[in-house]
Amino acid sequence: MFSQKIVDNLNKSSWIRAMFEEGEKLRKLHGPDKVFDFSIGNPEIEPLQAVEDVLKKLVQEDNPAKHRYMSNAGYDDVREKVAAHLSKEHGVPVQPQNIVMTCGAAAGLNVVLKALLNPGEEVIVFSPFFVEYLTYIDNHGGKPVTVPTVPSVFEPDPEVLKNYISSKTKAVIINSPNNPTGVIYSEQALKGIAAALEAKEKEYGTAIFVISDEPYTKVVYDNAVVPSVLNIFKNSIIVNSFSKSLALPGERIGYIAANTSIKDVDVLSSGLVYCNRTLGYVNAPALFQKVIAETLEESIDAEWYKIRRDMLYNHLVSLGFTCLKPQGAFYLFPKALIEDDVEFVKRAVKYNLLLVPGKGFGCPGYFRLAYCMSLKTIEGSLPAFEALAKELR
């Protein structure tokens, strides 16, 4: 009666959403203050006052056209400002005609994959990875190929990568700072990946695109630096959103930026615009295009997240958890205290702890916590983690 593919996928639905729904049940049963939901990256931090001020100004302006359609690629003046901002930030020229405003990074990734993929072509993802990548690739007839990272540091190994590249490889997705580990891929690792891709492109006579999913590039700690993919990869495409950098996840606003070094980049850009329309997004939200155009230099204070990172990380390590300290984003990815991470997450529910098993990120044996909530919630969770650790030690 319904799409069999969708019905089948319902049984494999996201662990993140599954645990979030479990949290809703527990909150009704025990009260919100007794439930410690680390399942979903939904920032509780409020947008900057500068963002609120620009929004208020735009709403009050006497401009009858502010809610109307525009080009499917977005407002020209907004694209110009985004291009200028990226050119300054990356130190390489980015052209407005190669910018497409999107309904967040999720829409942007789907648009890019739709524009690139022919049926059966392969897209490499590095585990652990954001779980929805597999679905996005499948949406557009692609085949995901999972490449493990080095377990001790969760960074890609270019030599390992070479073994997974085939004549059907069309793209590689990079996510740094990474969800779920918080790792920032080093310039050395990225240059190694670039060399591996270039060698394979010559071997197979193909072009392999690097899709850089970058919603966390403004959430970094301890003076860490996120290397520029536009400087490292010729065939690079940035997909970004303002969900995290400006704390606007519900507004669904982001962009795609294609590297001007891509051969026939104008054809690609036209394809991106076409897919933005035909996938049903039509255009990015009009009002928030204007908002972000006036706040491109703004960003949330990463110290807000760092305080939470340190409190939770230090407590878990003191309890015997093994965990790499995040360099960015707002996730911890500790090793579970038992081999079965799914069972570990189920045991945690007994203490009203909502966690996500590493299996959902292509990395069994670990679990993810999103620490983008109030300090009060994190402080309240500490005894629960202690009780869980005591039970399983």
Structural write-up:
It is a single chain. This protein is an alpha/beta fold and 393 residues long. It folds into two domains: 4-47 and 300-392, Alpha-Beta Complex (Aspartate Aminotransferase, domain 1); 63-293, Type I PLP-dependent aspartate aminotransferase-like (Major domain) (Aspartate Aminotransferase, domain 2, 3-Layer(aba) Sandwich), CATH 3.40.640. Helices cover 41% and strands 13% of the residues. The protein has 14 helices and twelve strands. It has helices at residues 4-10, 15-30, 49-60, 76-90, 104-116, 132-139, 158-162, 187-204, 229-232, 265-278, 286-293, 303-318, 341-349, 375-392; strands at residues 36-37, 99-102, 122-127, 143-148, 169-175, 209-213, 236-241, 254-258, 331-332, 353-354, 356-357, 367-370. The strands form three sheets. Strands 2-8-7-6-5-3-4 form a seven-stranded mixed beta sheet, sandwiched between helices. α8 links the parallel β5 and β6 (209-213). α3 (49-60) packs across α11 and α12 (303-318) runs parallel beside α14 (375-392). It is globular. It starts with a helix and ends with a helix. The mean pLDDT is 94.
